[in-house]
From TrEMBL:
Catalytic activity, EC: 2.6.1.62
Gene: bioA
Protein name, entry field: Adenosylmethionine-8-amino-7-oxononanoate aminotransferase
Binding site for pyridoxal 5'-phosphate: G106, S107, D230, P288, T289
Family under the similarity heading: Belongs to the class-III pyridoxal-phosphate-dependent aminotransferase family. BioA subfamily.
Length: 404
């Protein structure tokens, strides 16, 4: 299997053939991954933040099997079906945004949001903040950090948008004044402001004060600009609130959802908007082939039902407390610049880029799977993780920090 992988598979964010062979997984159950060689690892990543309920969940398995008996897929153009309609109604109820466009992935959801904003306003520029990440497709790349992000290779061919400095963790009047001035100066050309609420994910796992979200909502209203909230990483409880925007008590004009939407089972995303935006856009010229896939919609509805039933807020609070306690010692390591925790997100930021294969080998010796990047060793575990497994994750992270 490893030889075939090396010969034919091009993995994400990697050259081919990959210099370090990926680990073959034979089974995933609960919060554990079983490798082909028999080793068991506690998954501290929730498969890139998506598997919030853990793996092989009987409720989610049953939702897929039941739907498969009726219909695996049918085109969404001119046809509709109960799984997609039910999911859209649930998402509208959860967010207060009544119009739902179902897409294939988070990047596509962002593309759709950008299209909505351009069509609604007739303007063609966006404002965002440095340190952000919104996906790997072209429109999404154009609002990722153009200097420190992973897409600088494409800077010459991407549209140039307006970037504010990265928002600070604490509220700063000077930053707020500069942000206010920047929006005012460019308001006439802006279609929308797009940000990840409270937590910037793959751009560096930065946290910022919710007051800046409230300010952006006020500035968008004042200048007739739309506000897009990219909740792909922050949605469905990860930060301690159901959505990142809830920390600020605001509602965006457009919201992007993905990742945890299906509980990590299938690729599915959604772009939601207000009635006003939907009516202003009119015909949206976008239509993924697998839009509203019944299997994905059915398992997403089951995942959201499970989320509503489980005490996710208490679970995330317990994880936050465990991460705070377990990572406290890492802050003293000489190679560590910062340790930060919010909800079910724990981050160790190193002073220099980490040796990813070396760190992965170390944490795997502790029985843990993590995927560091840049200067970050971080965890976003499933909400179902037990205290013992969480302690194993933080012990592995602290050992990695001390090895830097």
């Amino acid at each position: 299997m490893a030889l075939l992988d090396r010969e034919h598979v091009w993995h994400p964010y990697a050259a081919t053939p990959q210099p370090v062979a990926p680990h073959v997984v034979s089974r995933a159950d609960g919060v554990r991954l079983t490798l082909a060689d028999g080793r068991e690892l506690v998954d501290g990543m929730s498969s890139w933040w998506a598997a919030i309920h853990g793996y092989n969940h009987p409720r989610l398995n049953r939702a897929l099997k039941d739907q498969l008996e009726d219909m695996a897929h049918v085109m969404f153009g001119g046809l509709t079906h109960e799984p997609a309609v039910r999911l859209a109604a649930t998402l509208a109820s959860m967010t207060g945004l009544p119009k739902v466009f179902l897409a294939d992935s988070g990047s596509v959801a962002v593309e759709v949001a950008i299209k909505m904003a351009f069509q609604f306003t007739g303007r063609g520029r966006l404002l965002t903040v440095r340190g952000g990440y919104h996906g790997d497709t072209f429109g999404a790349m154009s609002v990722c950090d153009p200097v420190n992000g992973m897409h600088h290779l494409f800077s010459g061919v991407l549209p140039e948008h307006v970037f504010a400095d990265r928002p600070p963790r604490e509220y700063d009047e000077g930053y707020a004044a500069r942000l206010t001035d920047l929006v005012a100066r460019h308001a006439g050309e802006l279609a929308a402001i797009i940000v990840e609420p409270v937590v910037q994910g793959a751009g560096g796992m930065h946290f910022y004060h919710p007051a800046y979200l409230r300010l952006l909502r006020e500035l968008a209203d004042e200048h007739g600009v739309l506000l897009i909230a990219d909740e792909i990483a922050t949605g469905f409880g990860r930060t301690g609130e159901l959505f990142g925007c809830d920390h600020a008590g605001i509602r965006p004009d457009i919201m992007c959802l993905g990742k945890a939407l299906t509980g990590g089972y299938m690729s599915l995303a959604a772009t939601l908007c207000t009635e006003r935006v939907a009516r202003g856009v009119g015909v949206l010229m976008h239509g993924p082939t697998f839009m509203g896939n019944p299997l994905a919609a059915a398992v997403a509805s089951a995942s959201l039902e499970l989320l509503r039933e489980r005490p996710w807020r208490e679970e995330v609070g317990r994880i936050e407390a465990g991460l705070l306690a377990g990572l406290a010692g890492a802050a003293e390591a000489p190679g560590v610049r910062d340790v930060r925790v919010l909800g079910a997100i724990g981050v160790i930021e190193a002073r220099e880029p980490v040796d990813v294969p070396a760190v992965q080998a170390l944490v795997m010796r502790h029985g843990v799977w993590l995927r560091p990047f840049g200067r970050l060793i971080y965890a976003m575990p499933p909400y179902s993780i037990g205290d013992g497994d969480l302690e194993r994750v933080t012990t592995a992270m602290t050992a990695a920090a001390r090895s830097l």
